[in-house]
Fold DNA repair protein RadA.
Amino acid sequence: MGAFYCSTCWHVSPSFQYRCPSCGATNSFYTEQQYAELMIRYIHHPLRRYRIIALQNLKQMKWKDAIPDIQERIRIEKDMDVKAEAKKAIEAIGIYHNRTENEQSVLKNEATHMYEHLYHVTCKVIPVRRIIRKRGHYHLRPRGLR
């Protein structure tokens, strides 16, 4: 189940609650989709502070459906801080969804064998004796090599 969000103070809760533990408001929790739609509406709020907070929340939620509204906000916004936050939000959402789509396409295209990972080199072997000798940790060397 997804997270629930308080519409009054924007507190995130893993489960639905009657009263918000942060601000004490009753019946103010929304599902993730309802909250994202509310944040999309808040992008066009007259107060600058609410626009910035809505953009930050959408960036954190990685809500892909908000991209057209954020682009519209960039086009009409005169405040440079809000415009910069909107650009950051679009960039973060785009990077996240491109990465997840690429990973899914790679997983669909590759038919991996269960032992295939054994043939890939995962780490570099470093001879321990040279490192111990260089750093002067003589007490860690085996007794025969002192």
The CA atoms of residues 105 and 111 lie 12 Å apart. The helical segments are 32-42, 48-61, 67-76, 80-109, 128-135.
